[in-house]
Amino acid sequence: MTKLPELLESVREEIDEGDVVPDVAQTDEIERLSRQIPKIIAILPDIFQRDRTTDDRHVAALEEMTKDLLKLMEKAQPLLLVRFHITIS
User: For the whole model, what pTM was predicted?
Assistant: First the structure.
């Protein structure tokens, strides 16, 4: 999930520079990666299923990773939902 923040920043820069339509390959990659986030969140508890009674760090790591993944998904959603209006002359 290190690639998604880079792609989001790149697309935001394009939009800020006034590009009417961001790069389609980048937006497709953002959509693909953001759709994988719920799947990753679903498997995280299984990864940290080790003995939680002896090590509270597993619970803390699970919560932190889930929070960070949800933030990434929230950042990606507005870019995926943006509609561009093109006026035909």
Answer: 0.67
